[in-house]
From TrEMBL:
Name of the coding gene: ccoQ
Highest taxon listed in the record's lineage: Bacteria
Protein name listed in UniProt: Cytochrome c oxidase cbb3-type subunit IV
Length: 45
């Protein structure tokens, strides 16, 4: 059973999904920063 889980975790398809999930937080930060920048620009008008 352990070998099956390890094989699944290190398979190429799983790595892509894990990397995508790990980087999702950075994408959210970028969106948040862009929103804040846009709000600041609008409030300066």
């Amino acid at each position: 059973m352990f070998i099956v889980i390890v094989a699944w975790a290190y398979s190429k398809r799983s790595k892509t999904r894990f990397d995508s999930a790990a980087n999702a937080i950075f994408e959210d930060e970028k969106k948040h920063d862009n929103t804040l920048s846009n709000e600041e620009k609008e409030s300066e008008k």
